[in-house]
Specification:
It contains three helices and ten strands; from the N terminus they run E-H-E-E-E-E-H-E-E-E-E-H-E. It has 179 residues and is of the alpha+beta class. The strands form four sheets. The chain has a four-stranded antiparallel β-sheet with strand order 4-9-1-10. Strand 6 and strand 7 form a beta hairpin. Helix 1 crosses helix 3. Zinc ion binds next to loops.
Length: 179
């Protein structure tokens, strides 16, 4: 099993839209040869439906050693769920003044997001209000109906993330997960 993941979650896709967005992203990733089907899925060793393709090194930042394997499997999810950063969890910060949300307040807001709709959070320092998914941070929690998990991949290149967001939707969020 993996011990880290880069998650790209898209926040505008409705439950109804998510399967089509996930399919569009999958087709693009396959066409770019960033991923390929996993010929031998194994529930313990290699559970993901997709594995890195021959062009996977093009999706990661230059710092990656191009001779080594890029990472493990890729999961493309189209069900509404919580995408959490595991052991990296840190409450997000205000986009205006960088004050961090209190952890207990944040968890309450995430629960509201999961049960109902995305809440608005107000900064206790500068009173800026923003949708919870617009607070800043790569170690926060998002509720999304479509997401791509890159298990044990190194940091992804900005150009690749832009290309992926063209297919997932306009409100992509990156989550750095540690298990
Ligand atoms: Zn603030």
């Amino acid at each position: 099993m993996s011990d880290s993941a880069i998650i790209i979650a898209e926040l505008t896709a409705s439950v109804e839209e998510a399967p089509a967005r996930a399919a569009a992203a999958t087709t693009w990733l396959l066409d770019q040869r960033i991923i390929r089907p996993n010929d031998r899925p194994d529930p313990l060793w290699r559970p993901s439906r997709y594995v890195p393709g021959p062009a996977a090194p093009a999706a990661v930042r230059d710092t990656h050693d191009s001779n080594g394997p890029v990472g493990d499997g890729i999961d493309i999810l189209d069900q509404r769920q919580v995408h959490d950063p595991g052991g990296n969890y840190t409450p997000p910060t205000c986009s205006n003044c960088t004050t961090q949300l209190a952890e207990d307040a944040h968890i309450t807001l995430v629960q509201h997001w999961l049960d109902r709709t995305e809440p608005i959070a107000t900064c206790e320092n500068c009173a800026t209000s923003a949708l919870l998914g617009d607070w800043t941070g790569q170690w926060a929690i998002h509720v999304a109906s479509v997401a791509v998990h890159f298990n044990n991949w190194p940091p992804l290149a900005d150009a690749f993330l832009l290309g992926l967001s063209d297919h997932l939707g306009p409100r992509c969020r990156l989550i750095q997960k540690r298990i």
